[in-house]
UniProtKB/TrEMBL annotation:
Top-level lineage group: Bacteria
Xref: InterPro entries: DUF2889
Provenance organism: Sphingopyxis panaciterrulae
Protein name per its UniProtKB record: DUF2889 domain-containing protein
One Pfam family per UniProt: DUF2889
Length: 260
């Protein structure tokens, strides 16, 4: 397992673990090559009563500060559809990954599920074109999602489109994706949302994250808390934070059993 970039011939791996504690609180942990976050969501059976976050490993120094913005969920009703978190709090003011994890924890609390575990595996893809802001277009590859150990979704992808299998072929992962998944059954939509995010984050394996000093130097638009214009120049790169879990998941989610 090497640490050189671009990483080729391997795969990106993302794990998400969601557990409901005895008191009803849901604890979620997420880890991949570039991120390690946790959330604890407390509720009264109907509404969120508290939410806390932890950031054991982050790409930029400002990322942990975004956890406080999840507090906007407090007092909002639980929903079984994880993406409904977007109606509760403004996504661009959040850390994307804590935001996603909070939505998954909320959905778990809503349906009273005891445990759920996702593993997304995205094969490395080559850069085939560049766009403004260091955005890369990647060639063909395969992405798979396992839920509680069982494969529930497989996509063939090329650039920003899903090219297979039948039923998904021709669907953009950008334009119209949310409209498409909102019409799906809740669990099916949740799986698709989790895999889409993994495909997008997997592109990070094509560039060495330590070549920039701040988020501003990345040239990315303000899609999240750290990359907002007002703070990206102050968001310092956490050099050496990246890992490589292409071979297996050993060592991932080491904080399971702890509450943020």
């Amino acid at each position: 397992m090497g640490d050189d970039f671009p990483r080729t011939g391997g795969r990106f791996r993302r794990l998400i673990d969601l557990r409901t504690e005895r008191d009803g609180a849901v604890v979620g942990w997420l880890e991949d090559d570039f991120h390690h976050f946790g959330v604890t969501l407390e509720h009264d059976g109907e509404c969120v009563t508290d939410i806390r976050a932890a950031s054991p490993r982050v790409p930029f120094s400002t990322c942990p500060l975004a956890g406080e913005h999840l507090k906007g969920m407090i007092g909002k009703p639980l929903s079984a559809r994880s993406t409904d978190v977007g109606a509760m709090i403004e996504m661009r003011d959040q850390c994307t990954h804590m935001f996603d994890l909070a939505g998954l924890a909320m959905a778990q609390a809503s349906v009273r599920r005891r445990h759920r575990r996702y593993e997304a595996i995205v094969e490395d893809r080559e850069i085939v074109a560049w766009e403004a802001g260091m955005r890369r277009l990647l060639g063909p590859g395969t992405a798979r999602l396992f839920r509680d150990g069982e494969e529930v979704l497989m996509w063939e992808v090329d650039r920003r489109d899903i090219t297979g299998p039948k039923g998904w072929a021709g669907q953009s992962m950008i334009k119209g994706f949310r409209t498409h998944t909102e019409a799906m059954e809740v669990d099916e939509a949740e799986a698709a949302t989790v895999l889409r995010r993994a495909v997008m984050v997997a592109s990070g394996r094509t560039l060495d994250p330590d070549t920039v000093r701040t988020a501003a130097e990345r040239g990315q638009s303000g899609v999240c808390f750290t990359f907002q214009e007002k703070r990206r120049a102050e968001a310092h790169n956490m050099r050496g934070a990246a890992r490589n879990y292409e071979d297996d998941s050993a060592g991932m989610l080491s904080h399971i059993g702890e509450r943020p």
